[in-house]
Amino acid sequence: MDFYDNLIGRSGISSLFLPSSNSSQFRKIKVKISTLDQYCFNHRKPNFIKIDVEGAEKQVIEGGFEIFKNTNPIVVMEIWKNNNKNHLEAVKILQTFGYKIHLINEDGELEQKTVNFNQDIKGETDNFVFLKYSK
Q1: How does pLDDT run across 100-131, given as a tens digit for each residue?
Q2: Residues 58-74: pLDDT tens digits?
Q3: pTM > 0.70
Q4: φ, ψ for residue 42 (rounded to 5)?
């Protein structure tokens, strides 16, 4: 897949989300990719996953369908305040697997909550914890 390293800003993006208007500020790099499910076929299954992939969260969740459905790792995912359609779709998929959204409160403790991402995100982005409880 093509990955674009941002020559001006602080992060890169995949070819899925390259903005055509300012593409000259990015340097293209070819990267080898795999899905989480493919990776876990030959490796130990994770019990904790941090997802911070600059707008490709839905693709990560879809590529780890079996892991998220059957293994139930703790997930911490960065979500943008604006332009977050892909993030919200990833959240919905996790919720269909039984994951619940948690905020990290001022005391550093997890707090399960119904989240309004436009109100509960501090700054441009924030991290949320997704836990799946055993029945």
Answers
A1: 999 888 898 898 888 777 777 777 778 899 99
A2: 989 999 999 999 989 99
A3: yes
A4: -110, 5
DSSP one-letter string for 76-129: EEEEESSS-HHHHHHHHHHHHTTEEEEEE-TTS-EEE----HHHH--SSEEEEE
In Å, what is the CA distance from 40 to each residue of 37, 61, 78, 132?
Answer: 5, 13, 22, 19
Quick one: the chain helix, strand, coil %, rounded to 5? 35, 30, 35
CA distance 15 to 55: 11
Cα–Cα distance for residue pair 46/73, rounded to 1 Å = 6
User: Angle at CA 3, nearest 5°, toward 92 and 42?
Assistant: 65
Task: Give the Cβ contact number of residue 72 at 10 Å.
Answer: 18
Q: Is residue 70 within a helix (H) or strand (E), and if so which, with residue range?
A: helix 65-70
Which residue has 């500020």 as its token pair?
Answer: 25
Burial of 128 per CB tally in 10 Å (0-12, 13-18, 19+): buried
Residue type, 39: Y
Indicate the length of the chain as a whole number: 135
